[in-house]
TrEMBL record:
<comment type="similarity">
    <text>Belongs to the UPF0173 family.</text>
</comment>
<dbReference type="GO" id="GO:0016787">
    <property type="term" value="F:hydrolase activity"/>
</dbReference>
<keyword id="KW-0378">Hydrolase</keyword>
<dbReference type="Pfam" id="PF12706">
    <property type="entry name" value="Lactamase_B_2"/>
</dbReference>
<dbReference type="InterPro" id="IPR022877">
    <property type="entry name" value="UPF0173"/>
</dbReference>
<protein>
    <recommendedName>
        <fullName>UPF0173 metal-dependent hydrolase HHH54_01310</fullName>
    </recommendedName>
</protein>
<dbReference type="InterPro" id="IPR001279">
    <property type="entry name" value="Metallo-B-lactamas"/>
</dbReference>
<dbReference type="InterPro" id="IPR050114">
    <property type="entry name" value="UPF0173_UPF0282_UlaG_hydrolase"/>
</dbReference>
<dbReference type="InterPro" id="IPR036866">
    <property type="entry name" value="RibonucZ/Hydroxyglut_hydro"/>
</dbReference>
<feature type="domain" description="Metallo-beta-lactamase">
    <location>
        <begin position="7"/>
        <end position="195"/>
    </location>
</feature>
Length: 229
C-alpha cells in the first residue's frame, strides 16, 4: 500500500488497484508537489467544504471521472451546482465498503462552507473526520477539528495505525491540543502532522509537536513523501 502526504491536509493512497486522494488542495497551494492536470485518481474523499480542502475537486472529477465521497450536502452541491455525476453521499457515523477499502465518517468540530461566485458562503454539511481500513491498516484523517474527548471512543472502536492530525492552530488544534489528542485519546502507531505552514496564520514548527508526543512514532513528511509503515 502507498500512503503519502502532499501539503496542507492532502493525503493520497493506492490500495486494491485504486487511487484515492483526500482533500485535494493543489492549485493555489505553494506547498503542494502535485500537478492537478496530471493527477489520475479513482476516488476523491472530502472531509468538508472549505476551499483549502475542497480545492481542485471539480476539475479533477470532471477530467478523470473520479467518484467524490463526502457529506450529503457536498454531494448535492457537486451534482446540482457543478454537474458532477459520480458522487457518493455519506454522513457522520455512516460506513461503506468501497473497492479500495472500508470508509467511515466520524465527527469533527469545525465548520464547512464554500464561497460562491457572488461572495456568499454556501453551507456544505457537517465537517467530518474519516476512518479508512486500507488492506488491514486503519487510517484516521481527523479533518479540520478542535480537540474533543470522543476521539478516544473513535480510537477504541477503530484502533488507529496512522493518524493525520492538524497542528496549525488558529483554525484547528494547535501543537498542545494535538499532542494531547495523540498521547491520551487516539494513541496511534504512527502520527503525521498536517495543516500547518500553508498560510501565515498556521505557521508552526512540527518538531515542537514531535517533541511533545510520547505515544507511537511521529513522521514529519515533506509534500510527496510516503508514510513509512
Amino acid at each position: 500500500m502507498k500512503l503519502s502526504f502532499h501539503g496542507q491536509s492532502t493525503v493520497y493512497f493506492e490500495a486494491n488497484g485504486k487511487k484515492v486522494i483526500i482533500d485535494p488542495f493543489i492549485s493555489g497551494n505553494e506547498l503542494s508537489d502535485l500537478n492537478v492536470n496530471e493527477l489520475e485518481v479513482d476516488y476523491i474523499v472530502l472531509t468538508h467544504g472549505h476551499a483549502d480542502h475542497f480545492g481542485d475537486t471539480v476539475e479533477i472529477a470532471k477530467r478523470t471521472g473520479a467518484t467524490v465521497i463526502g457529506s450529503a450536502e457536498l454531494a448535492d452541491y457537486l451534482t446540482t451546482a457543478k454537474g458532477i455525476e459520480n458522487v457518493h453521499p455519506m454522513n457522520i457515523g455512516g460506513q461503506w465498503k468501497f473497492d479500495f477499502g472500508t470508509l467511515k465518517f466520524v465527527q469533527a468540530f469545525h465548520s464547512s462552507s464554500l464561497t460562491d461566485d457572488n461572495g456568499i458562503p454556501v453551507y456544505l454539511g457537517m465537517p467530518m473526520g474519516v476512518i479508512i481500513d486500507i488492506e488491514g491498516t486503519t487510517v484516521y484523517h481527523t479533518g479540520d477539528t478542535g480537540l474533543f474527548s470522543d476521539m478516544k471512543l473513535i480510537a477504541e472502536r477503530h484502533p488507529v495505525d496512522v493518524c493525520f492530525i492538524p497542528i496549525g492552530d488558529n483554525f484547528t488544534m494547535g501543537i498542545d491540543d494535538a499532542s494531547y489528542a495523540i498521547n491520551s485519546l487516539i494513541k496511534p502507531r504512527i502520527t503525521v502532522p498536517v495543516h500547518y505552514d500553508t498560510f501565515p496564520l498556521i505557521e508552526q514548527d512540527p518538531e515542537k509537536f514531535k517533541a511533545k508526543v510520547t505515544e507511537g512514532e511521529v513522521q514529519i513528511l515533506k509534500p510527496g513523501e510516503e508514510v513509512r509503515l
